[in-house]
From TrEMBL:
Chain positions of site Lowers pKa of active site Tyr: K84
Domain NADP-dependent oxidoreductase: from-to ranges: 37-288
Protein's name according to its UniProt entry: NADP-dependent oxidoreductase domain-containing protein
Species name: Cerrena zonata
Domain of life: Eukaryota
Length: 325
């Protein structure tokens, strides 16, 4: 019997739905319109999960890809589409979702995430999306002590309760302290997913263990460390890719998928999109050795200023979070 591809694996969510374990990320490249061809290539290669967000400004290009794919016979129900409510749109999650649905040209998303557990200052349309005063984010609620972020998640729950516009709801960039604040205040739906930066260089095992205990699926962004792809250059990742005769990206995806997590790589190299869908069956020792790379020398590659004060470890520039331990 042939082994399943990474694109064929689904994971069960805590609300009864299922999520495809390999997603294609749609953060904009130099020219955002390149996302249309990227998504078409990915879906034709077998990807069923598209990860997007209002903030990326690429949803209308994803929408063009969907239109093209539907015209070719692909069905909406065969695809899993994730979008997110950005922190400057915190006051109007349903309006943010409506804008996303309109740009995507669809009537529902499979998963709606709160992009960050903070509330930055945005107008009625969530603009500007990066409200800065010098080096500092302009907030509508204190990022360390504020609790408005909980109301935002509750409003996202209400969309699931009261409309047919979302199947599942979840969160992104939640640390353990923020999860501990949120979980007792959940109205009805424990987040199905927490999307965070995760790779063999940043295993964050305390956070993934916490999510596992609460039946929250961890979804890994920047699985190769983002632009420059430092993780695929790691000698041990290259060694495993050579051993299994696969792309180094298959190793970084397998690191997550074999641990029951979602992996969200991004690529505009169409050959890479088509090739990196294999799921090498890494041994437990190999998975442990990958984990040790980051345990011994943790490296976070996304250090956005709106991550300050959220209680994450190893966030460069963060002077707001309290010391751990
Ligand atoms: N929730 C959040 O706050 C959040 C934050 C960041 C990202 N995300 C999501 O996660 C997705 C992925 O994040 P990311 O963009 O940081 O992902 P990533 O997959 O870690 O990095 C993508 C970059 O690595 C390059 N790359 C991949 N494999 C390579 C290889 N073998 N050799 C050389 N370069 C290689 C790609 O270039 P090529 O185009 O040449 O392949 C691309 O520039 C995003 O698109 C977005 O959907 C979410």
């Amino acid at each position: 019997m042939s082994q399943k591809l990474a694109t064929e694996i689904d994971l069960p969510l805590n609300d009864g739905h299922r999520i495809p374990a390999l997603a294609i990320g749609t953060l904009p490249p130099d020219l955002p319109q390149r996302v249309t061809a990227q998504v078409i290539t990915a879906v034709k290669a077998g990807y069923r999960h598209i990860d997007t967000a209002w903030y990326y400004g690429t949803e209308k290009y994803v929408g063009e890809a969907l239109k093209h794919l539907f015209a070719e016979g692909y069905k909406r129900e065969d695809l899993f589409i994730t979008t997110k409510v950005w922190h400057s749109f915190w006051h109007s999650p349903e309006k943010s979702l409506d804008k996303s649905l309109s740009d995507l040209g669809i009537s529902y998303v499979d998963l709606l995430l709160q992009h960050w557990p903070v509330c930055s200052h945005g107008d009625e349309n969530g603009l500007p999306s990066e409200p800065m005063e010098g080096d500092y984010v302009k907030y509508d609620d204190d990022p360390v002590t504020g609790t408005k972020f909980i109301d935002v998640y509750n409003a996202i729950e209400d969309i699931k309760l009261n409309t047919n516009k979302v199947k599942s709801v979840g969160i992104s960039n939640y640390s353990i302290p923020k999860l501990k604040q949120l979980l007792p205040k959940v109205k009805k739906f424990v987040p199905a997913v927490n999307q965070i930066e995760l790779s063999p260089h940043l295993p964050q095992k305390d956070l993934t263990d916490f999510c596992d205990q609460h039946k929250i699926i961890v979804s890994a962004y920047s699985p190769v460390g983002g632009t420059g792809a430092p993780v695929v250059k790691d000698p041990y990742v290259v060694e495993l890719a050579t051993k299994y005769g696969v792309e180094p990206n298959d190793i970084t995806n397998a690191y997550h998928i074999l641990n029951n997590r979602v992996s969200i790589p991004r690529s505009f190299n169409h050959d890479r999109i088509k090739k990196a869908i294999i799921l090498p069956r890494l041994t437990k020792d190999e998975l442990d050795s990958l984990y040790k790379l980051g345990e011994e020398n943790p490296r976070r590659y996304t250090n956005d200023p709106w991550g300050y004060g959220l209680g994450f470890r190893w966030w460069d520039g963060d002077t707001l979070s309290k010391e751990f331990d």
